[in-house]
Amino acid sequence: MQKERKLIIAGNWKMNKTVAEAVDLVNDLKLSLAPIKEVDIVVCPPYTALSEVSKAMIQSNLRLGAQNMSEQNSGAFTGEIAAGMLKEFSVRYVILGHSERRQYQKESDELIAKKALAAHLASLKPIICVGELLAEREAGLMEQVLETQVRGSLAGLSKEQMEETILAYEPVWAIGTGRTATAAQAQEAHAFIRGLLVKMFDENVARRVRIQYGGSVKGANARELMSQPDVDGALVGGASLEARSFADIIKNSI
Ligand code: 13P
Asked: What burial letters (b/e) apply to 57-71, b meaning 16+ CB within 10 Å?
């Protein structure tokens, strides 16, 4: 499949996997995905497994991401992890503003924007998540919600930083529910987000930024989703926890 932008498919393992399980999974992925160059492949284990997974990934085509980070660089912030600490493990990407963190940790767009700036200052590429709730979609508020989240979470980024930022459209009603957005619904939301990037930055930036779809992605629906012109990859939860299902998504996308 010829795409304008290189696909980026990331596995968000969420709060799953011991260190030993994480290393096993990465070793399996290394074997099955070794020849693939057409897709940027990222895995995002929990913090506790970053060190060992990082070692297991050396000389592979897999890249490492974290699931969150602090907006602060260091200091008295109990339980937090700074960008510089992630860099110690060759982390290159960091998921920011996942809907679970927006919901359970009450993360605001303002906080996410601060984290995104901190990530860029440490040369980490943020994967910034946005997405509407079912009630918001049903009330006809999807575009309004996405606009607020996109403008708020990207506030203060330069054009250069924006080009190194990945967006993930994850409709909350599709996460972990088995209810995937249709390809047309995903394309509509992605095109809307790209249109916002034109207004906020410019045409060139908007053309370069990759926008992932997330929400019940699996091998069976990956091809149709990835074939949409504005869908540039996937952020995968459940199906990234097993090598076979994650590899299927990647293989079916190229
Ligand atoms: P599922 O793929 O399990 O629906 O999760 C999506 C997600 O939240 C990825 O960040």
From this structure: beeeebbbbbbbbbb
Question: Is 137 inside a domain boundary?
Answer: yes
pLDDT digit string (tens) for 9-42? 999 999 999 999 999 999 999 999 999 999 999 9
Q: CATH code at 197? A: 3.20.20.70
pTM above 0.70, yes or no: yes
Q: What is the pLDDT of residue 57?
A: 97
Q: Give the binding-site residues of ligand 1, using a 6 Å CB cut-off.
A: 12, 98, 170, 175-176, 214-217, 235-239
Residue 194, Cα to own-chain centre: how many angstroms? 16
User: Residue 213 pLDDT > 70, yes or no?
Assistant: yes
* Atom 9 (ligand 1) nearest CA: 237
Say whether pLDDT at 153 is over 90: yes
What pLDDT does residue 1 have?
A: 64
**Structural domain includes residue 1:** no
Among this protein's residues, is 190 annotated catalytic?
no
Active site residue 98: yes
Q: In total, how many domains does the chain have?
A: 1
Q: Ligand 1: which of 67, 104, 172, 236 to mutate, most ligand atoms within 8 Å of CB?
A: 236
